[in-house]
Design goal:
The complex is a heterodimer of chains A (252) and B (613). Chain A is of the alpha/beta class and 252 residues long. Chain A is built from 9 helices and 10 strands. Chain A is 35% helix and 25% strand. The C terminus of chain A is likely disordered. Classes of the chains: A alpha/beta (252), B mainly alpha (613).
Chain lengths: 252, 613
Amino acid sequence: MTILNVAGISKSFGGVRAVADVSFSVAAGEMLALIGPNGAGKSTCFNMLNGQTAPDSGRVTLQGRDITGLSPRRIWRLGVGRTFQITATFASMTVRENVQVALLAHHRRVWRFLRPAFAWFGAEADGLLAQVGMAEQASRAAGVLAYGDLKRLELAIALANAPALLLMDEPTAGMAPSERVALMRLARDLASQRGIAVLFTEHDMDVVFGVADRILVLNRGELIAEGDGPAIRSDARVRAVYLGSGATSGGH
Amino acid sequence: MGFVLVQFLTGLASASSLFLVAAGLTVIFGVTRVVNFAHGSLYMLGAYLGWTILSRLPGGPAWFAGGVVLAGLGIAAVGVLIEVLLLQRIYKAPELLQLLATFGVVLVVQDLVLKLWGPNDLTLSRPPWMRSFVQIAGERMPFYDLLMIGIGPLVLLALWLLFTRTRWGTLVRAATQDREMVAALGVDQRLLFTTVFALGAGLAGIGGALALPDGSANGQMDLTAITDAFVVVVVGGLGSLPGAYLASLLIALLQAFGIVLLPKITLVLVFVVMAVVLVVRPNGLLGRKLTLARGEANTLALVRPAEPALRWLGVAALLLAVWAPWFVGPFALSVMTEMLVAMLFAASLHVMMGPGGMPSFGHAAWFGLGAYGAAFAVKGLALSMPAALVVAPFGAALAALVFGGFVVRLSGVYLAMLTLAFAQIVWAVMFQAVSVTGGDNGILGVWPAGWASNPRVFYWLTLAICVACVLVLRRALYAPFGYALRATRDSALRAEAIGLNAGSLRLVALVIAGAAAGLAGGLAAFSKGSVFPTYISIDRSVDALVMVLLGGVQSMAGPVVGALAYTGLFDMLLMVTDLWRLVLGLSIIALVLVFPQGIAGTTYRLWLRGREA
């Protein structure tokens, strides 16, 4: 079942075409990796899916519903969770409270002025934290967590609205190699068990080829290849972009 | 036609003096990211020092120029002193705490000036060349004003050359864009910051000295100058010099023509323009979006409800407060009533500043609206006291709702400035609408109802209302609403990504804060029996800021402790010394240096540490 369908989205910043006519789709339970050299347009692409940037043209549909140009807030309501490249959590709250706030928003219980927040959705929050292996750290301040733990907390927050689609922007950036694999394996399990469609960008090729069902390769805003691991590995244009043939080099 | 031209030229002349102050403020902010509240004090010191120097020199133009430059150098030296002794120690402290420290300097300078130069306005005896006029289109234009017109562009040019043609200037511009990067490149930041501060202070000093021939050196210059300079800097865009000049022109011309065309509302006009500019261009005319210094967002400490032991302390204090009227005298009782009102006022500001992340520099607006609302209700509508105490918070909340629509999307310094602008507008309206508000004379005879006319009864009533409101506010902050609000402060990006509507959360917080402050104002009106425009003055807004920051913005205990400590300290100082500003200013500075987290925040941390060890 197709969860997310992207049809010909484009975005220019001034004269630069950051993303040009990109189309793809993600199915339930599928892990789709979006890769490409720096400046290929991955983050712009991502921001158009979650509503931070409105595309110049093209359509984004979530479970058949047009979400093009909606605000991040609306898109979350429709069932899209997101983790950020640079983690964004609530530093003045504990780990559990971070998840509780997300749950309060999801269950539309934000406009409550009397009953203390800790009394809301505690068990549900602990359940989510257990899923990402953060149960023991539930009472710690989010502001003092190690980076890998912050990433896992973000994942728990992103899962709070029981998303159909999970967007993970560079989920393993800044993590130790062993942690990277563990985190992505966790995402892999969640995708399979809950039937969540996962779209992620990533620089670490071990992670990409290790967990992704399918891979999209962007270069200079254009989609140049799509396929499973072996197909991408043997694709001539991808090799040219990543290894550099001199003629079409746009990468590192 | 000639009249219009002269008015225009007069506007240009005052634009120059505005620019001199604003330029220094904007350069200092650009590099150090410190909003220097004491900048007006440097301007005032420049005027006084200029007076001392110039009144001893011969009257020739060259002597005058030399004297002004000398005054500028003197104030630059004062600037270095302030930067090295105070600011250098708090560059890493939260923005608002830096502001509090510079406000301490304002207080200290006020008393020093009073001590050194006396309470009288000091005017310069003007030599003939300064008094001469030039005929322009049939109108007389003071020669000195023509000189002033040239000075603004001249200083702008000089600064532009300094910033583009020298290595130092390049470093300053680089630091304005990214100061961590400049530090990483091995530039001596300390020296850079000190010299920038000296330059800004020197400009303010020159501005003060240049203002002498057209006016005087007086004790009110500092707050007037800082308010004007803030307006200019914010309208122009923080950190932008051309923006500051453009805004100086805009504001000065507006004032020059406004005073002729709409004399009744000149006070309001400037702030209305500022509000319009900020609503249309949230970063000022030529300003760019501010980049946060890296790592700032994650320095927030965990917020926890108070431990049981501390709650018992609160209960004990409350019991003591209930019992107090039986053993304290009438004066102490009135001070305690004042403390309670201050506590509610500070708590309401905490809702905005703490969890709301909205620093308000004009919180007195809501307080004043509440006070006037109560007074109108009693005197105009002949309502009873309880009804007036309902009108007060609702009136303020309604105003907050309307105003909030404009400001909730702004952040940081811009938001602070717009709240200040709003407070000034409210103040000006109350001050100028004499027929309704009595203007400066205020509204008298706002006495409590008969059953509450006994000071003890009124004290208990105030105690009940204030404590209940503070507890309700606190409860809301620990409820889902408060957490969602705090979430938008901690990480706007994440809050939006989990479906929180930051705009409406902040608006509701503003309305709640406005209502609580309005209620405090209403109580103040009945406890004093009168309302005056001073209820809405900048001083009162600053009082609230100081109380919150003094106590700490972390939790509700902060503003409560801060309000009690500040009001207590204040009244005690008034009794023992006439140098209360000096002592208060120095205490604030010391507190900022010793308790960077506020009294309550730091004490709580020490207490926790003691228990963990």
